[in-house]
Amino acid sequence: MKKGPIREWFDALLFAVIAATLIRWATFEAFTIPTPSMEGTLLVGDFLFVNKLNYGPRTPMTPLQVPLTHQKIWGTDIQSYLEWIKLPTFRLPGLGEIQRNDVVVFNYPNELDKPIDLKTYYVKRCVGLPGDTILIDNGEVIINNKNLTVPAGLQKRYFLETDKTINERIFRKYDIWEYTKVTGGYYVNTKEENANAIGNEAFVGNITLYKMDKSLTSGRVFPDGENYPWNTDFYGPLLIPYRGLEIEINKETISKFGSTIINYENIDNVRVEEDNLLIDNEIVTKYKFKQDYFFMMGDNRHNSEDSRFWGFVPYDHVLGEASFIWFSYNYQEDNLFKAIRWDRFLNIIK
Q1: pLDDT in tens, 275-295
Q2: Closest Cα to residue 88, out of 59, 56, 57?
């Protein structure tokens, strides 16, 4: 029986949706940069593709979802999924493993009220692998007693001393987009070469690298600001858990790893009481981790919500590797043609 035009159109549309869904699930997915936490490497308004083949695609946990959506139906606040069915998630074999300094897209771990695959996407640089010990000393990231290779796009905060009001055009000239006027000058987040260049201007008295004092504590620092008074520039040392790592349960390990065990190890009946870990209402004296964990940081080191504040990224939260930029738009630019960052088209992310 010959199909009518409406049936042919419907079949074609259905095939396209199924094909797009499979491609999005197993190979590449589009992603937009909404915040400046990776600036220097990735800019607000960058559109990129996430490569899921490198680390292996995950099977979906929440199958009852409107195709080609994430959390919300397009242009609305209507939830795009139902939690009536939740499946165990598995990762298919990938082309490689997560490497130190990879730029990784993952589900934000702390959204504990959502299924893993529908938590908000974050993008950060992987600075610590499972089994690594991370230390940040005076702003320098040290992994296993060796200084981490600095990414080309690394940004830090500087204090620009001046008694003048600096025009936005001057900041743009030096590729500085984040600046805050304070008493005696400006705080700017930028690359070292940009800071040095604007520092040569006659109206700039001095420019110095901002660092938090070691005696200060970031209020929300991971794992516990009370027991570990660390901050963004002085942090650790902290061991990153790996699958098979067995720890003794005591006050120190509960403080460092208790929240990770409770929230991400997929144990149905687990809790902490004082300095004890209870699983199925039984006190355990040792615990062996079930999966690998990673430590992620933004390249915009003084303006990034990352593992320093909310902890490790579990392996089952990893979506894929940020691969390349396919489009970039500067929302702060009024001129449409100038707003398109032509020089960023098809840039490989490093």
Answers
A1: 899 999 999 999 999 999 999
A2: 59
